Amino acid sequence: MTLRNKILLLLAAVIVIDVIAFMVAPPFDPKATEGGCSFPVCFINGNLEFPAPAALWTLPGSSALGGLFEVSISNTILTMWIVTLFVIALLFVLTRGKAMVPGKAQNAIEYVWEMITNFGMSLGGAEAKPYMPLFAGFFLYILFSNWSGLIPPIGKIEQFRAPTSDVNITIGLALVAFFFIEYQGFKALGIRGYMSKFFPFGEFK
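User: That's the sequence. What structure does it adopt?
Assistant: Structure tokens below.
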């Protein structure tokens, strides 16, 4: 089977899963009263998860400051852990037993790695190569987190919700990327050299 046919088969499988999910757990408006669910408002409110993530477990006494520093495990964090373990297990299975003549699993992971690396280096140049593992980790994590929303239970029951549908997860990823990039900038150019990129006062001389 060619790569093109495999991609088409994967897309067909995603469509079939979506159809089954729609039949088993159709969209519903949690705010709608009994006896009516008007289209398209019902479908919009039923698919877009505007409410904050539900807390599945809260540390006793942590909400003493009005919830400002409440320690809890939300449904997005639980799903994030599951997605993370799945990605780690998948990469472990696909990368073990590497050989000079790669098999199908090794071929697949090498193809994905080369695709991500080529894309990243086309943006950052050859000097970006040491940072490709972090870029690939972010790429695969975000990809599988988004895809997790296609699985019927996720987003349909309170215990599971796609991680990237929670603004706290996306802000956390953004902060990690921001501080890592700033650290590398100061490390490579020094404080004065890096700050001069943003405040080029020397240009006024």
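The radius of gyration is 22 Å.
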